Amino acid sequence: MNTILRKSVLGVVGLAFAGGVFAGPVADAHAAVPGVAVRADKPAVDKLVPHGVQGEQSRIELSGEQVGNVRAIIAATKKAGMDERAAVVAVGTALQESKLENLGHLGDRNDHDSQGLFQQRPSSGWGTVEQITDPEYATTAFLKGLKQVDGWRDMPLTRAAQTVQVSAYPDHYAQWEQQAADLVAQHWNS
């Protein structure tokens, strides 16, 4: 082989080797080291949205008050001994019912006597106005209802939420699943 050809071949091989060493396969760059514990900052996606999302998703920007309500829902979920999926169902439900705003009586715009994050009704036995407008109480009441739904963990969010809430618009909960999962992932460990 002549010198110019040999230098060209070695140069190409060298570039390929160097590119492989420096760029390397992406999958190996984040491989776990045996015996080293890795802290998971966020819950696994398959735990938050085990069935994927259904239909077109909605998303809203949240105020500080709304983020505070997300944190209150998560805290109440943990206090009830329930997992991240329960928090996703609760946050998704509150996104649909109130856009995570702790609503009082809305006068003529009120749906019957519905109030609070989950638009629960005193006349339907959810509690007093003072109770259902308390985020911890309202979340605990919602989760108590969720616990009574056989197989709720194996249901899409919209079906689990509807079974508890009995809404006139049962499929509307589905649109909030991704944002609810994102919020729970972001705030579960904060």
SSE diagram, text form:
Elements: H1 3-23, H2 26-29, H3 45-48, H4 64-79, H5 84-98, H6 129-132, H7 135-147, H8 157-165, H9 177-187
Helix pairs in contact: 4-5, 4-7, 5-8, 5-9
Structure characterization notes:
The chain is mainly α and 190 residues long. 51% of the residues lie in helices and 0% in strands. It has nine helices and no strands. The longest helix has 21 residues. The protein is globular and about 35 Å long. The termini are far apart.
**Quick one: biggest sheet?**
none
Shape type? globular
Q: What is the typical, i.e. mean, pLDDT?
A: 80
Share of residues in helices: 40-55%
Portion in beta strands:
under 5%
DSSP strand tally:
0
Could you name the key traits of this structure?
190 residues, 51% helix, 0% strand, globular
Write a short abstract of this structure:
Helix content is 51%, strand content 0%.
